[in-house]
């Protein structure tokens, strides 16, 4: 009886799943496709208001007075680190909802060693968050200098609001940042799309307040921008489809290699059987010789 390797089943199953579920929806029902659906960059990053910050600090004062004092000092010493950390706390509170978001031991039960270790971890986490922020800002300055300049100006005025605005902008621009590492062509299409969206919004603002004689020219320009966006949206879908085809082809080649290996095993059955029988008989002879 031939036993087929488990990894062969996994590869075959993966190809089926990829083909059935990863194929873009517009290829399945093109007649119902709205080319603009799901193409607008929506941010799920909410801004943390000053009132929310104070509410968080007040809650911490009740549950973790030492933590609250530490954050207040941080707010004075490094407003950016404070804003980054308060966002993390707010997100945990949102996720936890009915539970207490800020986990802590009961007052008086934490040893000095444990507090020191907690502080060390906290400091490392703050540095990590700051490093990520600076990495993102450096990328933004290179790719969207005007937006980076706006954020850097805000940083000088209100560090907490700066961190809020960075969090919102990351939702929009980070897909481009990630795509540059794996698919430069897709990254360029994403960047062009963002630029077209920005130009569209500017034109809509101008049209809203334009005089009648100016509207026709602005509407014509808007039509050109929307037309270009249509092309870019199609291009993004095609690029993603091409990447999916490449993945499927690699999986197919891997599956073919597995099949060839399996056939080689089948072809080796007579020789393999003969060698195995010889090994078993030799083991019997060795056991006889070891008996006194």
Salient structural properties:
292 residues, mainly alpha, 11 helices
Describe what this molecule looks like in 3D.
- The protein has helices at 6-21, 25-28, 50-63, 65-77, 79-96, 112-143, 145-157, 159-182, 184-209, 212-267, 269-290.
- With 292 residues, it is mainly alpha-helical.
- Among the domains are: 50-104 and 112-182, no CATH class; 184-246.
- It starts with 5 loop residues before the first helix and ends with a helix.
- Gyration radius, in Å: 30 Å
SSE pattern: HHHHHHHHHHH
Mean pLDDT: 81
Distance between the termini: 40 Å
Q: What count of helical segments does DSSP give?
A: 11
Strand content: under 5%
TL;DR of this structure?
Helix content is 82%, strand content 0%. The chain is mainly alpha-helical and 292 residues long. Among the domains are: 50-104 and 112-182, no CATH class; 184-246.
């Amino acid at each position: 009886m031939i036993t087929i390797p488990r990894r062969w089943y996994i590869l075959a199953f993966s190809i089926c799943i990829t083909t059935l579920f990863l194929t873009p929806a517009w290829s399945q029902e093109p007649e119902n496709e709205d080319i603009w659906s799901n193409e607008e960059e929506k941010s799920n990053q909410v801004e943390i208001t000053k009132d929310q910050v104070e509410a968080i600090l007040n809650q911490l004062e009740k549950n973790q007075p030492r933590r609250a004092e530490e954050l207040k000092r941080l707010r004075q010493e490094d407003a950016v680190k404070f804003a980054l950390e308060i966002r993390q706390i707010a997100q945990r509170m949102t996720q936890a909802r009915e539970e207490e978001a800020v986990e802590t031991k009961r007052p008086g039960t934490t040893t000095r060693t444990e507090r020191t270790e907690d502080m060390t971890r906290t400091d490392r986490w703050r540095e990590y968050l700051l490093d990520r922020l600076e990495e993102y800002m450096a990328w933004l300055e290179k790719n969207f200098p005007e937006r980076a300049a706006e954020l850097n100006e805000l940083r000088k005025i209100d560090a907490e609001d700066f961190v809020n605005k960075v969090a919102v902008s990351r939702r929009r621009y980070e897909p481009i940042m990630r795509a540059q590492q794996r698919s430069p062509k897709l990254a360029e299409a994403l960047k062009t799309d963002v630029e077209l969206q920005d130009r569209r919004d500017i034109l809509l603002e101008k049209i809203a307040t334009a005089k009648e004689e100016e509207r026709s020219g602005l509407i014509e320009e808007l039509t050109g921008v929307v037309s270009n966006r249509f092309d870019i949206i199609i291009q993004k879908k095609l690029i993603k489809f091409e990447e999916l085809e490449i993945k499927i082809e690699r999986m197919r080649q891997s599956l073919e290699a597995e099949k060839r290996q399996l056939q080689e095993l089948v072809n080796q059955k007579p020789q393999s059987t003969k060698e195995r029988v010889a090994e078993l008989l030799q083991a019997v002879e060795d056991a006889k010789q070891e008996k006194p």
